[in-house]
Amino acid sequence: MIKKLILLFLTILLASCNSKSTSNSKIKESNSSKDFVQFVNPMIGTSKMGHVFPGATAPFGMVQLSPQTNFEVMFKEGKYNSKTYEYCSGYQYRDSTIVGFAHTNFSGTGHSDLGDLLVMPTVGDLVLDPIETKDGKKGFYSKFSHENETAKAGYYKVDLESYNIKAELTASERVGFHQYTFPKSTESHILLDLVYNVYHHENKNVWTFLRVENDSTLTGYRQTKGWARDKKVFFAIKFSKPFKSYGHKKYDKLTYNGFYGRFDETKNFPEMAGKDIRAYFNFDTDKGEQIKIKFALSPVSSAGAMKNLEAEIPHWNFNKTKEATQQKWNNELSKIEVETIEKSQKETFYTALYHTMLSPILYEDVDGQYRGLDQNIHTSEGFTNYTIFSLWDTYRALHPLFNVIQQERNNDMIKSMLAHQEESVHNMLPIWSHYANENWCMIGYHATSVIADAVVKNVGDFDKNQALKASVATANVSYFDGLGDYIKYKYVPDDKSHSSVSKTLELAYDDWTIAQIAKSVGDEKTEKTFLERSEYFNNVFNPENKYMSPKLSDGTFRKNFNPLDTHGQGFIEGNAWNYGLYVPHQLDKMVTMMGGKQTFSKFLDNLFTQELEDKYIEKHEDITRDGTIGNYVHGNEPGHHIPYLYNWTGDEYKTQARVRMIMDTMYGIGVDGLCGNDDAGQMSSWYIFSALGFYPVTPGANQYALGSPLVKKATLNLENGNTLIISTENQSKENVYVSKLTISGKTIDRNYILHEELMNGGEFVFTMSNQPKK
Questions:
Q1: Structural domain boundaries of the chain?
Q2: What does UniProt give as the signal peptide span (predicted)?
C-alpha cells in the first residue's frame, strides 16, 4: 500500500512539474479539427521593413528558430547603418544566401538584437568564416532559392544549394529541433557559431562558453551586450548521431585560464571559452542520412536547458514535434474562425493572427525558474513569466486583443510586469524590456495602460492594489525621460527634453489609465491626482495655430514651428498632423479644441489626402512611402487610432471607408504585405480588430469604436465558454458602409460596442451597403 501511495505521489508530482512545459497550462485544448495553419504564410512581411522572421516557433515560444540571410555590410563594417536596420529579424527576402539558423529573433520590431546561437551544416573543406576567408575564398554561407523554401506555422524548410543539404526546422516552446539531410561525405560538418549576432559589432559578445559533455551532447552559454545590456542565454544540445571529431577557433585575444590551462585551438579540449568562438563537429554521412539536433534554451542555466530539452522533446521524431507544434497553432488560431469573400483575405487574416502570437515570449524553465531584472533567479508562483514587452507599440491594440482572445495569458503577462517592477532598482514597471533587461526604448509608461485595460474589462486575478501601487511608483520616478519636468511644469518643456509634445500627450494618457485603476479599487485621492495630471495635454495645445505644439520652459510656444515636419518639432516618429491627434482619453474635448466636429472632420480629410513632401520624412526609418496615405502614416503606430476618429465628428461613414481602404491597400499576401514594422504584433492586431468591425481607440475604456468589418462571418470561441458570432449581410468589396447593426437581435444606434457585449457572446449582424449612412 505504501509503495502504491508513493507511486501515486510521484505521478502527481511529475504532472505538476510538467505543467510548466507549455506556455500557459491553463489554456484549454481546442476540439477543432480544422486546419488553420494552411492559411498562415510566415513569408508575409519578410521584405523591406516588415521585420518579421519566417522560421519555426511555437505560440509565444522562447525559441524562434529562423534562417539568417547574408548581410555582408554588418559583418564587414561592424556598425549600425540603414542597411542593418532592415535586418532586425535577421532575414530579408531579397537575399539569396543563408549564413545559418539562429534560435532567438524579434518579430517586427523597430530595433535589432538577438540572433543567438547560430547553427550551420556544411560539406567539404572546413570553413569557419561566414562571408569570406582571409585569403578571399568563400565563407560557410550557402546559396538558396525561394523556390526551394517552405515556411509554415511551426515549420521551415530550405535547400542549402552550396552543400546539397536539406534543412528542416521545427520547435517546441523551449527547444529548437533541426533535421538536416546530408549527401554522402566523409567531410560533413555542423558549425556552432557563437560569434554571430543580429546587429553584429565587435564588442557585442561579452563571453561565451561551450562544454562537450560527451560525443553527442553539448552545454554552454553566451553573454552579450547589445540592446539588452546584459543578456545571458544558456543552452543544451543533443545530436542524434555521435560526432567523430570536433574543434573550435577563437577570434579574440582574451585568454581563458581554466582547468585545461591556456587554450590551444588546434587541440580538442572539452571546454571552449572566450569572447568570440566558432566550434565545429565532424561526421561521416551516407547519401540521404539525417542528422538531427535538439537545441534547448534557458534563461537560468545549462542544467535548466537540459531539463527543458528532456521535458519537451524526449524523443527523436521530428515529424511528431512538428505536428504537435502545428496543433498548438491550430488551437490558438481556432479562437477566431473566419469566412471571407476571397481566400487571400483569409490568408492575410490568419497570418496577422499568427503574428500577434509571436511575442511576448515565454521566459522561464519548465520548473518555473527565470532570470529576473535584478539578474537573480526567481520562481514564478501562480503565473507564467513572459518577456519582450514592446509596450509603446503593443498597448494600443495587441494587449486589448489579448483581453478578448488571450485573457489568461494577458493575466500572466501583467503578473510578469508586476514582478519586473518588484525586481527593478528604479521601482518601475517595464518600458521596453526583454531577456531580464530594460532598454528604456520610446516614451511613456504604457504598462499602466495594459493594466488598466485589463482592470476595466475584468480580466485576470492579479492584485489590483499592487498594480496601482506599482503604477503610481512608476509615474513618480522624476529622473525618467522628462517625467520630472512634466510633473514640475505640467508639460514637458521643449528646451529641456526631446520629443516634448509626444511625451506630454503619452504621459497624460497614461496618467488617465492610472486614474482608472485607482477608481476600480476605490482610491479617490489617487484617482483625483491622476485625473488632474491627465489634463496636462491642454498645456501643449496652441490656440493660435490649433496644433499641439512644442512649448518652452518659460511658458511660450516655440517659434518657427512646422506642423508637417517630423524632424525636431517636438514629436517622435510623427508630426503635429498625426501625433498631435493623440488624446484618446479626451477625444470630444480635442475635437472641440480644434474647431468642432465639422472642422475636425475636414482636418482628417486633409490628413489623408494632402501631399507630404519627402523632405519631411527623410531620415526616418519608421516612416516610409509604403506606409503612408497622404500625411497619414499607417506604417507606424502613433496614428493607428486616427481612421476611427471620424466617429467623434458624426461622420462615421468616413471611418468605414478609410478603414476598408487601409485593409485593402496596407496589408496583403505578398512578402511586402506589411506596410511597416509589425512592431511585435501591433500592426497585425490593428488588422484583426478592423476586419472584425471595431477597434480599441482608448485602451483602459470598455468601448470599441465601430468600423467596417471585412469578414463575411467570424466565430470567436472565448475562454469563458461563450461563443460570439459576427456576421455580415450584403458583404462585398464595394459595400463598405454599415447601414445597420444588431446585437442578439437588438438594433444598436451608437457608434461603439461594449466589452461585455463581446464577452457575453451571441451574434452581431452588420448590414452592409454601398451607400453611406449620414
A1: 38-331, 336-769
A2: 1-21
Contact 372, 697 (CB under 8 A): no
SS (H, E, C) 518-540: HHHHCCHHHHHHHHHHCCHHHHH
The angle, 0 to 180 degrees and rounded to 10, between the axes of the packed helices 464-474 and 500-521 is 150
Which architecture characterizes domain 38-331 according to CATH? Distorted Sandwich (2.70)
User: Where are the alpha helices (H) located in 631-681, listed in sequence order?
Assistant: 652-666
Lowest mean pLDDT among 87-96, 295-304, 362-371, 717-726: 87-96
H or E element in which residue 298 lies: strand 290-298
pTM of the model: 0.94
According to DSSP, the β-strands at 762-769 and 723-729 are parallel
Task: Report percent pLDDT > 70 for the chain.
Answer: 92
Closest to 640 (Cα-Cα) out of 357, 393, 391: 393
Q: Are 148 and 160 in contact, with CB atoms under 8 Å apart? A: no
Most confident range (mean pLDDT) of 7-11, 215-219, 264-268 is: 215-219
* Alpha-carbon span 349 to 406, nearest angstrom: 17
Percentage of the residues of the chain whose pLDDT score is greater than 90: 86
- pLDDT per position as a tens digit, 28-70: 334 446 999 999 999 999 998 899 999 999 999 999 999 999 7
Please report the pLDDT score of residue 29 as a whole number.
39
Helix axes 343-355, 682-692, angle to 10 degrees: 130
**DSSP code for 619:** T
Tell me how long the chain is.
774
Judge whether 200 and 74 are in contact, CB under 8 Å.
yes
